Amino acid sequence: MDGQKIIETEGLTKRYGHQVAVNSLTLQIQEGEVFGFLGPNGAGKTTTLLMFLGLTEPTSGKVRVMGFDPTRDPFHVKEKVGYLPENVGFYDDMDARQNLLFIARLNRIPDRDSAKKIDSLLESVGLIGEAKKKVGTYSKGMRQRLGIAEVLVKDPKLIFLDEPTIGLDPDGTNRMLDMIHSLSREKSMTIFLSSHLLDQVQRICDRVGIMIKGNLVAMGPIGELAKQKLGIDKEHYTLEEIYMKYFKEA
Amino acid sequence: MHGIFTIFRKEMEDYFSSTRFLLIFALIVMVGVITVSMVGMAIQEEVKGMAKPTLLFLMLFTSTGKLFSFVQFIGFFGPLIGIILGFDAISRERSQRTLSKLISQPIYRDSVINGKFMAGVATISIVLVAIVLIISGLGIRLIGVVPGQEEILRLAVYVIASILYISFWLGISILFSVVFRSTATSALASLALWIFFSFFVGMGAGVLADAVAPINQGGPSGGINVAMVEKHEMVQRVTSYFSPMSLYSDTTTTILDPMRKTTKLVMLMGPLERLSLSRFQSPLPFLQSFFIVIWPMIAIVAITFLCFGICYFAFMRQEIRTI
Question: Does A166 fall in a domain?
């Protein structure tokens, strides 16, 4: 896992008035890893993602995503980075293909190339049978899968997923996690996912970062954090135990 | 440019497949056809046996017939078309949660507004050109008069002015859809502004002019105080020009009625001047009319740009978080 650094931040800070949303965040994400960004609601996870994409300007600090500064050069970052917002929306009166085609056009993919690609993406997320239905009729799980397909339209190297499994039923959650897992293994994409659903993160992430009230309180592989925090080398630790320990301290 | 074009294309597809566009278009076609047939028949009766009166063709658009003229209809309801096309431009993307996804694609943020605005203007243009052609076609059949070059030029200026004017209202409604979170608030704000400009600025101008320069009292000699009348008129005109509606109505009445030589409503003149004016009425050449209306038209373009500028500013500075 000694790839290049795909995200690098140093002292990244965002304030809204007097409220500090993200406080001096310093982290590095290697190419190819699955990084879980954990924290309770309102910990500053989404704000961090928005700063990575250049959609929100940091108050201070440095950030580089794929070698570009997202504040100065958001265009290049957005070209190569896929972002699935929490509770992603679609144009409900268009069908799945039309939605993806629109995103493909915004990414300057010629129509003749995108048609094939869209079909294979819909196939891979299991929506090819429903491709002609209006997205407004889709269930939550189908929408989330369509969201993944949409993110992949531009062939990103790095994907940001904001709470990808929230509101899904157990079956939908499992499908989603498998999909994320295979993206990382088969297509060697770097995945940065924010979540507060710990057992799911534990299943798929190489490393995690724990964010509480704007501060990154811990970062590293789950096993190492367990050693540090729980002080034992036991086999059966859960991420939840570690997380609660940090949470109580903060 | 690529992003603008893609969004433009999608918005056009949306407009032309939407029920609301069909309703607007059906309404306008209906009104257009009804007014032109009524006016056409009235003109037929009126000019029977006469040699061809000048610029008869334009009367299809300006003559009021029994109800109202087509020009009056567009003057009054045109803003509504702009508002209906734009009031949910940004707020719908927000409530659908598609906006954050949209701007995380490799496009510039202003492309979203530009594309939507351009699609709206294109739609307005298509509707207006279509309806003017329909009316002209029906009119030619009804009164049997073919428009001359000058009439075509005048109509073209009228169509351009109307597109600019309705685009101004489109800009206003897009601005409100950026500023207000809820679609309903944005629609109501645009409507409130429309009502304010259509009724209250005109009324306010009258009240203000009466207060600043009362003309109901006689002058020292018992007659009308000429200076006061002029001042009254000036105050009223300047105030009413704060409403884009007066700019527009001045433009259209002047360009479509060659007998009008000024946008002023009150003209003070002696009895001899009046006599000579009525004896030697002749239409103004197209270019002269055009020179009169170019200023209010520029003013409409200017306020459209102004409100578009505010729109940019508001949209660029908005926190995406809250979108």
Answer: yes
